[in-house]
Structures are given as C-alpha cells and as structure tokens.
Amino acid sequence: MSDDWQDAAFSSRHMHNRRGSSNKSAKPFDVRKTFGSYSLKCSAWQKLDGVSIDNDAVLELYRLTENGEGVVGELALPGALRAAVVFVANRASLRRVVDEFEEEEKSEDGEEDEEDEEGEDGEHNRFETFEKNSFRSPKFWFRWNGVPAQSKSGKSGGDEEYETGLGYIVFAGNDCRKFKATISCSSLSWKDAPITGHKISGRSESDIPVTWGKGKMEM
Q1: The pLDDT value given to residue 16
Q2: What pTM, to 2 d.p., does this model score?
Q3: Contact in structure between 61 and 72 (CB atoms under 8 Å)
Q4: pLDDT at 25
Q5: What integer pLDDT is reported at residue 54 of this predicted model?
Q6: How many CB atoms are located within 10 Å of the residue 148 CB?
Q7: What is the pLDDT of residue 134?
Q8: Using an 8 Å Cβ cutoff, are 86 and 197 in contact?
C-alpha cells in the first residue's frame, strides 16, 4: 500500500501554522465527534483463513481517558483480533497514556486512586487538548491491546497471550464520518495493514467498560 495519504497527513501539520484567509473560518476540532460506531474494511483481515465476510468488522469509540489525553474504544476484527484501543494526538502522549494503564496493572493491589476534583475548568481543558489536532483531517496515533486469534489458537487450556500493537488513523474531516488507517500486529504478520472505515452512528460519551491487558485494568 502506498503511504502517500499518511505522508500528506503528517505534512499537513506544518500548514496549520500558516497564516491565510482559510484559517480565519476554521473551527476548533471537537474530539467528541469521534465517538460512535464505525464499519471497517481491511483486506489483510479478509484474506485470513477462517474469516467470514458475513461478520462485521467494527470500531467503537466511547469516551476520553481519565487524564483527557486519549480516546477509549474497542476494535473487532472477527476471527482475527478483538482489542481495547486508545487514540492519542501524538506519540509522546500515547506513550504516557499507555504507561499509565500498565502502571495501574502492576500496582492494582496498591493504594486507591485519589478523588478526581478537576471540576468544570478541568473538564473544559480535557477537550481543549484536541482542539489543535485539526487541519480538516484530524489524525491520531493509536495503541491496541488484545489477544490475536493466531496467538490464542496456539495456547493450551485457558491461557491467553495479550499483545499490543501500533496504528495510525486520519479522518477525512472534522465531522469524523470516514477515515483511513493502518494497523500492525506481529502475530498476524501485519505491518501497517490498511483499514478504511465509515461511521454508522454517533454517540454521546459512554461509560461502557473497556479493559486493558491481562489484568483487565479499566480504561
């Protein structure tokens, strides 16, 4: 697959700082536009043995992470991968968000988390984090965590080997109706496998449970 669209997405960041009449009418990006259900197409998934095209591949995006830096969701490629996902505006933030999930998993028997007292100002700032992520094509890095079918089939008993992988997504516009993405998964021998998606329905912020890792830490 050509990476032209991905290269263009990266280069568009530089255009964000240019002054021009078009920027005057640009509106801040509302990350809540990403929330919803998306139907997916993925040729790498469709080529796998045992996969039925009658099964729907979907991406569900529910809410922001507690620290406001990421978007929490779930990815389902039936017969291949079911995973928790977190979308973040840049790689540094992605590492920070994922580290928090994994640190919580290591210390789940430790002290309870402090009460969140961010208030209305804090809530406003959570959404401000993403307002700069827009020049007509909002883009995110994402990390997934789940059990690939190939990995699961090779294990005996109830053992499940959780795996993580990286991806990148570019929405076609600030309304987040369509996107192009790539995903990597070592167990499936995927390296930047292309995915396209379109929104089936939007949603308000949802508290549907999503867990990360073998310790099933709530996201």
Answers
A1: 43
A2: 0.76
A3: yes
A4: 55
A5: 78
A6: 23
A7: 53
A8: no
**Burial bucket for residue 61 (CB in 10 Å: 0-12, 13-18, 19+):** buried
Q: How far apart are CA 199 and CA 137, in angstroms?
A: 15
For residue 69, give the nearest of 1, 144, 127, 148 by alpha carbon: 127
Sign, CA torsion 139/214/83/202: negative
The residue ranges of the chain whose pLDDT is under 70 are: 1-26, 105-135, 151-159
Contact 18, 187 (CB under 8 A): no
CB 42 within 8 Å of CB 13: no
CA distances from 34 to 15, 62, 71 (A): 22, 8, 8
- Cα 152–Cα 169–Cα 26 angle in degrees, nearest 5: 155
Name residues whose C-beta falls within 8 Å of residue 130's C-beta, 6 or more positions apart in sequence. Answer: 29, 30, 31, 89, 138
Report, in angstroms and rounded to the nearest whole number, the Rg of the chain calculated over CA atoms.
Answer: 18
DSSP secondary structure string, 20-40?
-HHHHTPPPP-GGGG-EEEEE
pLDDT of residue 13: 41
| Residue 147, token pair as written in the block | 């059990």
Q: What pLDDT score does 10 carry?
A: 41
- Tokens in use for 139? 């883009």
